[in-house]
Amino acid sequence: MDAETRQRRIRQLAHEIWEAEGRPDGHAARHWAMAERLVAAEAAAEADDEALPPPAPRRSAGNGSTSS
């Protein structure tokens, strides 16, 4: 995620947190910090997903059986 996208996502989440808490005054720094942590967690989860190998193809139970 580039810096501009990251900032936009943080701003969006901070606003959502502010609204969810009833739009209190004086908590902008805390909301911003919470949003930064959430974005960092999202980025870490995304990186973990990209690092995992693709799942092995599944074999169905009926394939390859011989009939009598």
Automatic annotation (TrEMBL):
Record-linked InterPro entries: DUF2934
Disordered, as annotated region: 42-68
Protein name: DUF2934 domain-containing protein
Highest taxon, organism lineage: Bacteria
